[in-house]
Amino acid sequence: MMIYCLKNMLLNIWKRKERQLTDSDEDGDIVYVERDFDEYKNSDGEQDERNYPVFNPEVIYEPEFELGMIFSNRDEFKKAVQSHAIKTKRSLIFSKTAPTRVYAKCSNEDCSWKVHLNKVKDENSFQIRQYNPKHSCGTTYHVRNLKANWLSERFLKKFVSDPKKTIRVFRQDAIDELGCEISKGQAYRAKRLALKKLEGSPDIQFSKLWDYAEELRRSNPGSTVLLGTKWMKFI
User: Fold this and answer.
1) What Cα–Cα distance (Å) separates residue 181 from each residue in 50, 111, 132, 136, 177?
2) Quick one: three-class SS letters along the chain?
3) Cα dihedral sign for 98, 99, 104, 107?
4) Cα–Cα distance for residue pair 86/81, rounded to 1 Å
5) What tens-digit pLDDT sequence spans the chain (235 residues)?
6) Can you say whether residue 58 is alpha, beta or left, with left for phi > 0 and alpha for psi between -120 and 50 degrees?
């Protein structure tokens, strides 16, 4: 009996050792194991999130994922996945969406790319716990993740500088920059959403002053129209 118990104890120790040494799951995907997370604990034995890479929302349209990366919320992560799909020209899907986790994978069933996000215990933030960065599929010109709302946010500054940009010009510029197919309907909806977001923007309201002055000149021939701002006046 003692020999049997000793054998089982040694077997369990060996199994734990094997789990600690491995750095991949059964599918061959790179994963964090408990040993890796222990490296980020401070002297009190608590997790020190300052050692984890934190996602920078300023690069939301050019995201780079890392194992252990921290996201402030699920929506930030989902938008980053959407941008990653467009950037890499591959359609991605969310295989699981729950309050405490979000799983994304390539829409190509034969592709091994995937990323798993889980909620950090006792925190509001989320963390990438599993990530396989390699695509085994080819790129596509028709990315299903490309939506009008994403386009409106991505090119919002272009509409600030030129709110009168035509749908045709905007669509062609976006296609050239992204290298993805954009329908006329998507371009139309994107511009409409962008202009709606800019309603009340000081830059947009200021640009309308010139249109208003021009309309006054047109409707009142021979009249002098003075357009004034806080600092200067224009005739």
Assistant:
1) 40, 22, 27, 22, 11
2) CHHHHHHHHHHHHHHHHHHHHCCECCCCCEECCHHHHHCCECCCCCECHHHCCECCHHHCCCCCCCCCCEECCHHHHHHHHHHHHHHHCCCEEEEEEECCEEEEEECCCCCCCEEEEEECCCCCCEEEEEEECCCCCCCCCCCCCCCHHHHHHHCHHHHHHCCCCCHHHHHHHHHHHHCCCCCHHHHHHHHHHHHHHHCCCHHHHHHHHHHHHHHHHHHCCCCCCCEECCCCEEC
3) positive
4) 9
5) 544 444 455 445 444 443 333 344 444 444 443 334 444 555 555 555 458 999 999 999 999 999 999 999 999 999 999 999 999 999 999 999 999 999 999 999 999 999 999 999 999 999 999 999 999 999 999 999 999 999 999 999 999 888 889 999 999 999 999 999 999 999 999 999 999 888 765 555 566 666 667 777 777 787 777 766 654 444 4
6) alpha
Residues in the chain: 235
Tokens found for residue 191: 């511009």
